[in-house]
What we know:
The protein is an all-alpha fold. Helices cover 83% and strands 0% of the residues. The protein starts with a helix and ends with a helix.
Amino acid sequence: MSDILxxxxxxxxxxxxxxxxxxxxxxxxxxxxxxxxTPADYGIVAIxxxxxxxxxxxxxxxxxxxxxxxxxxxxxxIRKILGLLILFNLTLALLQWxxxxxxxxxxQQPQLGQVLQxxxxxxxxxxxATLASxxxxxxxxxxxRAKIDLSASVIGSMLALSLAYAGMGFWSLIxxxxxxxxxxxxxxxxxxxxxxxxxxxxxGTGDAIKxxxxxxxxxxxxxxFMKIDILIAGQFLQQNQLGIYAVAFHLALLxxxxxxxxxxxxxxxxYAAIRHQEGEYARVFCYIFRIITVFSFPLxxxxxxxAEDAVLLILGDSWQQAILPLQLILLTVPLRxxxxxxxxxxxxxxxxxxxxxxxSVSLLVTxxxxxxxxxxxxxxxxxxxxxxxxxxxxxxxQLCTRRSKxxxxxxxxxxxxxxxxxxxxxxxxxxxxxxxxxxxPRWLNLLITVIMGALLYCTILWIGFRQxxxxxxxxxx
Length: 477
C-alpha cells in the first residue's frame, strides 16, 4: 500500500514538473499564435476541433482504461485489444473522410471538408498511441510519458507559430495538432520498447469491451457536452462572433483542460490499486479534493478579476469583446474541476455508468440553456454557464457521494472555505479596478492586482479557515 502511494507520488511529481514546463511554453507560444490569427480563423478551428474530438473520443473505445484494470494481462490480450482499436479507428477514419463534405455544407464553410479529411490521418496512429500510453500508465511510468508529451508539445507549438507567421491561418493549428498526435504515438511506442502486432480474434475480450463501451459512451457525451455550445451557436452567431466566444472559452478552460488529464491519469491507477479499502480511498480522495479546491478557486477567480488588463495587454484591443465572456466562464471553472475529480474514483470502483448518467443530465441541461441563450449573443451564452454549472455539479455530487459512500456534507464543507475566500477576493479586486480607472498604467495595475489578490485570499483563509490554510501550507507532492 505504502509502495503504491510512494510510486504515485513520484509519478505525480515527474508528470507535474514536465507538464508545467510544457504548458508554460505552449501557453506562451499560443498567445503569439492568437495575435497572428483572426476571430474568423478560430471560428473554423472551433468547428473542426468539435467534430474531431467527438470522433477521437470513439477512437480509444475505452479499451485503454480496461487494460489498466485487467488483473492478468498477457501479450495475447494486449494484441487483441490492439486489433479492436485498429478496427474502430479505420472505421472512424473512413466515416470522417466521406462525411467531410456534408459537414462543410451543413456549416456553410467549404474549407471544412478538406480540413476534416486531412485530420482523419490521426486515426491511423491512434491505436498505437492509446495502447502504449495506457500500458505505461499501468506501470505508473508517467515520467517517460511526460517527456514525450513535453517534446511533442514544444515541437507542435513551434510548428504552429511558424505556420501562423507564414500566413497559414487556421491551417497552422490544424497541422500542428496533427503533428503532435503522430509524435506522441511514435514516442510512446519507442519508450515502451515493444511493437505489438494486432490479433484479429477477440475471444475473452467481452468484459473489456463492455467496460470500454460504457466509458466510450461517457467520453463521447462528455466531449459533446464540452462542445455543445459551439455546435448550437454555429447556427446563431456570425463566424466572427463565434470565434470570439471560442477563444474566450478556450482561454478560460485551458488550465482545466491541461490539469485534469494530469490528475486523472495519475489518480485512476492509484484508486484502482486501493479500491477494496473503503476507508483509505475515501481518505485519499477527500485530501486530494481539499488540496485542489483550495488552490483552484483563487486561481480562476483571480484570473477573472484581472482578465481585462491581461487580455488587452497580451492579446491586444482586437480581442476586447472576449473579456466579459472570459470572466463569466472563468467563474464556473472551479466547479467543473471539482466535478471531474470524481471521474477516476468512479472508474476505479467499477461504476463507469456514474459518469454516463452524470454527463447525460449535464448535456441535456446545458443544451437547453445554451439554445435559449445563443440568439442573444456571446455574453448571454457565457453567462448561461453560471446557471447550468452549479446544477450539474450538485447532481454529480449527490450521485458520486452515494456510490462511493463519502458523505455529501464532507464535500460541501471542503468546498465552502475556498469558494467564500475567492469570492471575497474577486469582489475586492473588481472594486479596486473600478476605483483606479485609467489612473494607473495597465501593466502596473495588473501587477498590483495580482499581488493584492494573493494577499487577500491568504489573509481571508488564514483568519476564517485556519485549518485549511495550514493544510495547504503543509502540502507536499
